[in-house]
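Recall the central idea of this unit: under ordinary conditions, the amino acid sequence of a chain determines the structure it adopts. In this exercise we apply that idea directly, starting from the sequence alone.
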Amino acid sequence: MMKEIQISTEIITLGQFLKLADVIQSGGMAKWFLQEYEVKVNGELDSRRGRKLRDQDVIEIDGFGSFIIVSS
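Accordingly, the structure predicted from this sequence is:
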């Protein structure tokens, strides 16, 4: 099942997303997390914490599940 992550802005970075989705505890963990885990954005591997995510982007993280960005 895909989890919806609501954002109130037009874009959010991958690092901010990880914290918002409760995947990591703090923003400082983003760089380490992205080196240790495979993260796919719309089906493509991406490890850039500054990657911009927009409404309807799909993020898949091994062991954590699938998420979709929903703009409120």
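Residues 23 and 64 are 7 Å apart (CA to CA).
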